[in-house]
Design goal:
Elements lengths: L20 E6 L9 E6 L5 E3 H4 L14
Antiparallel strand pairs: 1-2, 2-3
Bound molecules: zinc ion (ZN).
């Protein structure tokens, strides 16, 4: 069971900042390959691949033309 708005706290492991984080979806969609998600701290400009810190569960939408 998933909770809609969990209290997830993410902080930068370099500078401790928690309000300057953005995520970036990297790459382009290629069948059989997954896009990478990077978390960038805009305070210290560090970059972490999300897959370095947590397991991925890939789900593809069956809908086409998703906006
Ligand atoms: Zn930082």
């Amino acid at each position: 069971m998933s909770i809609a708005n969990p209290r997830l706290h993410i902080i930068c492991g370099i500078c401790g900042c928690n309000n300057e984080l953005i995520y970036e979806i990297v790459g382009r969609e290629v069948p059989g390959k997954h896009l990478n998600v990077h978390i960038r701290c805009r305070n210290c400009d560090s970059l972490t691949e999300l897959r370095e810190v947590m397991e991925a569960k890939i789900q593809y939408s069956k809908k086409e033309n998703v906006k």
